Amino acid sequence: MAAANPTLAKNLKILDSRKRIINHRNNGFMQVLSSESYSKHGINPSCLIFDELHAQPNDELWNTLTSGTDYARKQQLVFVMSTAGVFDKESIWWRIREKARQIRDGIVEQPNFLPVLYIADPEKDNPEDEALWIRVNPSIGHIFTIDKIREQMKEAKNDPVEYQNFLRFRLNIPVKQLSRWMPMADWDRCAGAVDPDILSGKICYGGLDLSSKIDLTAFSLVFPPETADGIWDILMKFYCPEDSILKRSRQDKVHYDLWAKRGLITVTPGNVIDEKFIENDIVAASKAFSLQEVGFDPWGATSISTRLLNDFGIQMVEMRQGARTLSEPAKDILVKVMSGKVRQGGNPVLRWNADNLVMRSDANGNVAPDKEHATEKIDGMVALIMAWGRAMFKVDTKSVYEERGVISL
After folding, report:
1. Residue 72: which residues within 8 A CB-CB, separation 6 or more?
2. 220 and 366, same structural domain?
3. What is the span of the domain harbouring residue 193?
4. Helix axes 379-396, 348-356, angle to 10 degrees
């Protein structure tokens, strides 16, 4: 901009290599700063423009540039601009946003702080309300049109990741995770009760995510519908070592202990998971239902899968934890949940896992659960996706003769 304007170009010197613009009349300059905080000590800016505060990994750079730097400046100005980020009450972005909200609402008084907030209320506002779009997007009609937002909203309805992005970047609503997969409102609508007695003897497929021996382990059963437009039923079992229950409750900030008392988590004695409990439940499931196969992550589950196959004749199928294996079932679960074709029983442990579920994707749009970047446990959903994958494979490849038999002419 300075180079293109004759007046500015005449009075300012632009140093592209240093990302600096110098005004020799007052020896002042504008400088683009890198993100390293250690090299910014001693800077006393007259004006600081801090863009996209939500992207800061911590508060080090913010503190370096704002704590005490105004002592050397009579009227220092600090401009902060940011879209919504990933919710974290400890982040500098959230702390500044909450401070701005409290000042705006009169809860806190600070005359030298001017809050200007264009944010939607996730509890009260309807994300599809066009009047809301206009209220929280002052750039409408200047930088982009409302038609562009309509187009984005249409795409976001069919893509949970895009929907999260729409909430953040268009409505300034914080999200729990950048790529949360499951729309929880749709998930909760599928929380109908699942009666094991009614499912007795019916065909089902299992998924086992053994995880580590000191962590949460999950076993899932998926019952495909008998008709093409029927409901898919889900039964879940979770396991955790007794000595880890209280530690996990504190560390993960969820109520493992209360879930265990309600029978939603099977507690195994000692400080590691006793695989015998899991083995017994899978064998019991094979007797109560027509258990066709159990998909499992081969990592750490070789011994139990071998025993189940050799000693009990339960068909165990290795399922590698990648997009090639898990993408189709993950996407199909999403479609079925959003269309109300799932009955998951309202299990709060599974709901917690579903809410935590983060996906990684490849260049072809294939997805797979991403345990590395999930902030909390997703083991139940991994087990469910594996069970669903085995069910999908069998249902999709079922012969027409199994449905209607042989017709004689």
Report:
1. 44
2. yes
3. 186-396
4. 90
Q: Specify the CATH number for the domain of residue 86.
A: 3.40.50.300
Burial 261-271 (b: 16+ CB within 10 A, else e): eeebbbbbeee
Nearest one of 395, 57, 338, 304 to 182, comparing CA atoms = 338
| Contact indicator for 390, 292 with CB cutoff of 8 Å | yes
β-sheet bridge partners, residue 239: 217, 266
Residue 38 lies in a domain: yes
Domain match, 221 and 276 both: yes
409 residues of the chain, pLDDT tens digit each: 888 888 888 888 888 888 889 888 888 888 888 776 566 777 788 899 999 998 888 888 998 888 867 777 778 899 999 999 877 778 899 999 999 999 999 998 999 999 999 999 988 899 999 999 999 999 999 999 999 999 989 988 877 667 877 898 899 998 765 556 788 889 999 999 999 999 999 999 999 998 766 678 999 999 999 888 899 999 999 999 988 787 777 766 678 888 999 999 999 988 888 899 999 999 999 999 999 999 998 887 888 999 999 999 999 999 988 888 899 999 999 999 999 999 999 999 999 999 888 887 665 667 888 877 666 789 999 999 999 999 998 765 444 334 444 343 3
Q: What is the pTM of this model?
A: 0.59
- 345 plus 251 within the same structural domain: yes
Alpha helices per DSSP H over 40-91: 60-66
Does some domain include residue 123?
no
Radius of gyration from C-alpha coordinates of the chain: 28
| C-alpha–C-alpha distance, residues 374 and 379, integer Å | 11
| Alpha-carbon span 346 to 189, nearest angstrom | 9
Residue spans of alpha helices (H) in 215-255: 245-251
CA distance 12 to 29: 9
Tokens of 42: 């001693």
